Amino acid sequence: MNHHTTIDRSPNRFALEDEQGQEMGYLDYHVDDVHYFLDYVYVDPIFRGQSVGQHIVRAALDFAQSQHLKAVPICGYARTVMQRMASRT
């Protein structure tokens, strides 16, 4: 699967696109002074089962870390991905 992650600052969204620019999925978020809230993850049905959601969550977590913000999963899927990542370390 060829894709790249784009950051859309308004409306606070990480979007994953394929090489043709088709949006595969996205993660909506909001921030305060110290927290990075992962509000909602969506993956287009035709791309489900291809780790698109995991890739988006990981990219968002990398961004939060680079901004020295504590990631707080509001979305149940984001919480599950974060728990799986923590259990592997």
From TrEMBL:
Pfam families, A to Z: Acetyltransf_CG
PROSITE patterns associated with the record: GNAT, GNAT_YJDJ
InterPro entries the record matches: Acyl_CoA_acyltransferase, Gcn5-rel_NAT, GNAT_dom, GNAT_YJDJ
Domain N-acetyltransferase residue range list: 1-89, 6-89
Domain of life: Bacteria
Gene3D superfamilies, sorted: 3.40.630.30
GO molecular function: acyltransferase activity, transferring groups other than amino-acyl groups
Protein name stated in the entry: Uncharacterized protein
Species this protein is from: Ephemeroptericola cinctiostellae
Native organism taxonomy: Bacteria, Pseudomonadati, Pseudomonadota, Betaproteobacteria, Burkholderiales
